[in-house]
Write a structure and sequence with these properties.
By secondary structure, the chain is mainly beta. The chain has 2 helices and 22 strands. Strands 1, 2, 3, 4, 5, 6, 7, 8, 9, 10, 13, 14 and 15 form a 13-stranded mixed sheet that branches.
Length: about 375
Amino acid sequence: MRTLKLFLIVALLAFAAASALAIERPNVVYKVFQFPADKIPRIDGNTEDWDIVPEDYVIGTDQLSDTVNGHGTNIDPKDLDVRVRVGWVKGLNRLYFLYEAYDNYWDFARNDLHNDIFELVVDGDLSGGANIIDMHPHRSLLDYWQGYFRFQNVFAQNYHILTPPGDKDWAFVWGCQSWLKRLPWANAAYSYNFKPGESGKLVLEFWITAFDYASCDGPQRSMESSLEENKLIGMSWAVLDYDDVNAKNYRGFYNLSHKTTMYGDASDLVQFKLMPLDAKFHKPIEAHWDFKIADMDRRLVAFHDESYGKITSWKWDFGDDTSSTEQHPTHVYQKAGAYNVTLSVEGPEGSAKFTRLGDVTVR
């Protein structure tokens, strides 16, 4: 028995170590700004909605490395200079992006993927692993197209976003899930005034929905990633910079991961943290709560306090002439009904209360 316990401990430690290393740049964690529900960015190519995002959320050219053509981090901002900000909204499984870029030569005249591209890969549950068929651990056992439809872009999603698209669609989804780039799962808008081959600044504003499982059969067979405060997700992007309409390859593959295979292996992405709402968008003290029906047959409900501020006391009114002073109580209702439940909180900076009308319903 002791030997078995020791084996299990060693196995768990090995697994934890492997998991910790299953991400590139493990000492780097980028931040995703939480927008208040009344300040969700409008997708119109205008940057004003992003003025509330602090400068330390900006991820610039200095964070990128060209891992294909050997330029490394030596990127001349006179040739290419980018700034990216990422946001989210509590209650929505969307990631919002503002991509601002100067390029000395915008290449988007051709009707194919020879185009300046912002390539984005998102792993909403940080599960890691290959997400294209060519990197599948059992590639030799699968016919390419059979594997493509079973596997590619399913557990982490790759978007080739055209900057700008010209007469083409705004993005190429590298898998069979073309529905991912359309409303209600994504939206995009651009602002620029240059022509192919010219220099200038581009503004791209867009959002996508993160999926733990994105099925070729459509959203009805898929599962969105649950985005929650302080959650870590895997993500990286690469800027594919073409500077010659006749060239076979791009002149730069500038990526955030610092590892080329970030485009097809989610273990080569980097960490992003979904940040809490900034204190300036809160009142000093706010009451808020949620609940789950723990056992409908027993009418057992579990309540969870989600209030904000320095709180020293809680008072629950369950709507059936009973109450509790616990922070996270459970309660059994004696009869079926739709109950109005109120949480009142107090602290050194004041008091607040929050009522849900008829949400707590038991049969």
